[in-house]
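Chain X:
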Amino acid sequence: MNSEKKISWIIVNHTDIDNIKYDFIDKNQYRLKINRIKEFHNKILFKCYYENQDQQSQSLIQLNVEKIQSPPIISYVPNNQTVPIGVEVELSCQSKDERNVQWWFIPYNRPYKTIKIDNNRKYRIEINHDLIIRHPEK
């Protein structure tokens, strides 16, 4: 009785096979490892094919690759301020990556309720990303 099993991996939809380097991590489980994922690996479709003497099976697996940017490093953090009610306040925050500067409000008594600040009647975010608070209240 021949109980030998065979598992193979096939790249279904990618024509430039030379750029895709992969290894089998575990010969018994036939897990596939792709070394150094790159953006061009996105949407590669793999077929895992299994067969032994009695049965065969296959499955398609698509690899999705996302480019995740690291958060910006804040180079200047504003100091706490105490101001009279109704006086306009300007807060500066600078980052090396100016595209990702955002302002968030975290209520003192409800830190779980974080609110992203957008331009509206009370708040204005300047082109240089300074936050202007109009008519602050207690």
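Chain Y:
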Amino acid sequence: MKIYTKTGDSGDTALFGGRRVSKEHPRIEAYGTVDELNAFLGQIVAICQDEAIAGSLQRVQGQLFVVGADLATPMQARTSYISRMDASFGQQLEAEMDAWQAKLPQLTQFILPGGGPAGAGLHVARTICRRAERRVVNLAQQEAINQEVVIYLNRLSDWLFVLARYVNHIQNMPEKAWQPE
């Protein structure tokens, strides 16, 4: 099977359900940024030394495929093979955040993004997630979407922040407090 189809050579692409849109359409921007986040999480998994954390990241990568498919499928499209996001995804993130935060020192000031390679990477992933969230909110202002996607991305950015702190903590990488000049 060939990877290239040449159907997008004129600058448009197909959504699930058949409609064709420009590759700069807000829907494509939204799920493209989710795809970027997913790829970056794969890079973090490659350097992660903790099997449980790598497993959690890979689970989130799978969830991001559901997010992307949800975003690539207009609400009015009738497909039998696309799963939509639901609240359970975000609830799982909340439970993990609560468990990690219980093991972390209380946050009393702003910290600079950084730490070890995995922790610093998770801080970058958080910013990509926030951009994806902004793209999805922009899309939602123009077309109907599954609001669970917005909620999930908002929760995921928090999860990535807490996980960055947790990874740095278990790797004995001290947090650096932001000091206003």
